[in-house]
Amino acid sequence: MVSLGLEDKVVVVTGGARGIGASIVQLLVELGAKVAYIDVIDSEPPEGVLALKADVTKLESMEAAGKEIEEKLGPVYGVVANAGITRDNFFAKLTDEDWDKVIAVNLKGVKNSIQPFIEGMYERESGSIVGISSISGDRGNAGQTNYAATKAAVIGIMKSLAREAARKKVRANAIAPGFINTEMVKSLPDKVKDKITAEIPFRRFGEPEDIAWAVAFLLSPVASSYVTGEVLRVNGAHHT
Ligand SMILES: NC(=O)c1ccc[n+]([C@@H]2O[C@H](COP(=O)([O-])OP(=O)(O)OC[C@H]3O[C@@H](n4cnc5c(N)ncnc54)[C@H](O)[C@@H]3O)[C@@H](O)[C@H]2O)c1
C-alpha cells in the first residue's frame, strides 16, 4: 500500500467551517492528518478536529490561534490559506469599503495565516503551504476586480515564498479552482450559472472534493516533494 504521507501531520486550514475548506478538512482527516481549522463562523467540527474561532485579517488573532494549535496538536507541517470572501460589483460602482474588505480577508489574510507558522517550518526544515487562488485571479472576471486582484496576488505570494523557502525545504503552491459548488457561487442568479456552465468544457461546476484532492497532493511530502511555486488549475478545462 502507498500513502500520501500525511498521517499524523498537523495541518491548519483557514475557512474550514464550510464549503471547500470543510471538504479539505474532511479529506485530510481521512488521510490521517491532525487537522485544525480557523473560521469566523460557528460550526460543529468533525470528530477529532480542532476548530478555533479567529479572524485571518488580524495577525494577533492568528498568532494566538497558532499557539493554541501547536500546544494541542504539535508542530504545524501544513497550512492551507483557504478563507476568502467576495464583494462583487462592476469597477465603476465598487465602493472603497468593498475593496478594502476583500483585500483584508483574501490578501492580508493569506499573509496572516502563514506568518505564525513559517519560522517553525524553517527550523524543522519541513512544511507545505497551499494558497487558494481562483480562476478569476488567473484570467480576470467582470464584476470581480477586487477579488481577482487578491487572487492574482495569492499566486505572487506563493511563487515568491517558494523561492524564499526552498533553502529551508519548505514548499509553497497555489490552487486556482474554477467554479465550485459552494455557498459562494450559490448566490449567483440561475441565468448567470447557466451561462458559466455553458463555457465550461466539462459542462458542470466542480465539487469541493475536487479541490480537496488537489490540496492533499500539494501537501503530500510523498506525492509532490519537488513541486513548489506552482499553480494547479482545477477547473474542468475552463482555461483562459
Ligand atoms: N466556490 C468557488 O467557486 C471558488 C472558486 C475559486 C476560488 N474559491 C476560493 O476558495 C476558498 C473557499 O471558498 P468557498 O467557496 O468554500 O467559500 P465559502 O464562503 O463557502 O467559505 C469560506 C469560509 O471562509 C470563512 N471566512 C471568511 N472570512 C474569514 C475571516 N476573516 N477569517 C477566517 N475565516 C473566514 C467563512 O466563514 C467560510 O467558512 C476562497 O478563498 C474562495 O475565494 C472559491
Please characterize this protein's 3D structure.
The chain has one domain (10-232): Rossmann fold (3-Layer(aba) Sandwich). The chain is globular, with a radius of gyration of 17 Å. By secondary structure, the protein is an alpha/beta fold. The chain is built from eight helices and seven strands; from the N terminus they run βαββαβαβααβαααβ. A seven-stranded parallel beta sheet has the order 3-2-1-4-5-6-7, sandwiched between helices. The protein starts with 9 loop residues before the first strand and ends in a 6-residue tail after the last strand. Helix 1 (19-30) links the parallel strand 1 and strand 2 (34-39). The chain has helices at 19-30, 59-73, 96-124, 135-139, 145-165, 183-186, 190-199, 208-219, and strands at 10-14, 34-39, 50-53, 76-81, 127-132, 170-177, 231-234. The mean pLDDT is 97. Bound molecules: nicotinamide-adenine-dinucleotide. Nicotinamide-adenine-dinucleotide binds at residues 14-15, 17-21, 38-41, 55-57, 82-85, 105, 109, 132, 134, 177, 179-180, 182-185.
Radius of gyration: 17 Å
Shape: globular
Order of helices and strands: EHEEHEHEHHEHHHE
Query: Compounds present?
Result: nicotinamide-adenine-dinucleotide
Please report which band the strand proportion falls in: under 5%, 5-15%, 15-25%, 25-35%, 35-45% or over 45%.
15-25%
CATH level 1 class label: Alpha Beta
| Mean pLDDT rating | 97
Distance between the termini: 38 Å
For the record, the count of structural domains works out to 1
Number of separate helices: 8
CATH fold-level name: Rossmann fold
Q: Runs with pLDDT <50, length 5+?
A: none
Instruction: Characterize the biggest β-sheet.
Output: 7 strands, parallel
Number of strands: 7
Portion in helices? 40-55%
Q: Could you give the order of strands across the largest sheet?
A: 3-2-1-4-5-6-7
For this structure, what is the CATH homologous superfamily?
NAD(P)-binding Rossmann-like Domain
